[in-house]
Structure formats: C-alpha cells, structure tokens
Amino acid sequence: MARGQAVKRSVRKDAVTREYTINLHKRIHGVGFKKRAPRALKEIRKFARKMMGTDDVRVNVRLNEVRVKLARKRNEDEDSPHKFYTLVSYVPCSDFKGKQNINVEPEK
Q: Going residue by residue through the chain (108 aa), what tens digit of pLDDT does each one get?
C-alpha cells in the first residue's frame, strides 16, 4: 500500500452488538467547560462510526456515562441510503477496572 493512503473499511453485512469502554477524558481534554458535553457526544458518535462502520449513528437520550453498548441494526427505512445504523446505549457499570470489549448476543 502506498504511503498516505487510508485503509477503507467495508460495512459488515450482519447486525452485531458490542460493549466498549470509552475514555472520554482523552477525547475532551482541553475543551472549554461549556463545550464539553456536546464534544463528548460528537466523540462518542465518531467512535461508533469508526468501530461499527456505519455513518448513521443514533445515541440513546439517556446516555450519560462511558460504558456503552453499540448495536448495528438494519435500517427499516427503504428511502435511506444506508443499510445499517448504529444505536448507542448506556450499560450500567459500578466499576470499570478490567472491562474488555465484548460481543453481546442480539436481543429478540
């Protein structure tokens, strides 16, 4: 591969759910007080876009912590140009030590 070319990731063909711990400190370090929450949401969306390979990212309105579950789901809107979207939701967690990224069985 030539120097300076980015690796293009393909969108996976299956729906999947994964849990991640996102370190928000390093993503909003140096950001002003009033802009920290909007920047944190932008960084969560950016992280979800990178990890799941979907441009359409929807954040659950109750999300206010750093342990999140990313679920890639099929888009039921036929008019949408994207086949999948990623839903970001909160996972309750009392301690973050030793947490690993895990695949979660899909809810039915």
A: 567 776 665 556 688 888 888 888 899 999 999 998 889 989 989 999 998 888 998 887 766 545 778 888 888 887 888 888 888 887 777 777 778 888 887 666
Q: Is 35 exposed, middle or buried (0-12, 13-18, 19+ CB in 10 A)?
A: exposed
Per this entry, what is the length of the chain?
Answer: 108
pTM of the model: 0.56
Give me 52's structure tokens: 């799941």
Domains annotated on the chain, with CATH = 16-95 (3.10.440.10)
By CB atoms closer than 10 A (0-12, 13-18, 19+), residue 24 is middle
d(CA 100, CA 30): 27
Could you tell me if 21 and 70 are in contact, meaning their C-beta atoms sit under 8 angstroms apart?
Answer: no
Joined tokens for residue 106: 């899909």
Q: Cα(65)–Cα(87) distance, rounded to whole angstroms?
A: 15
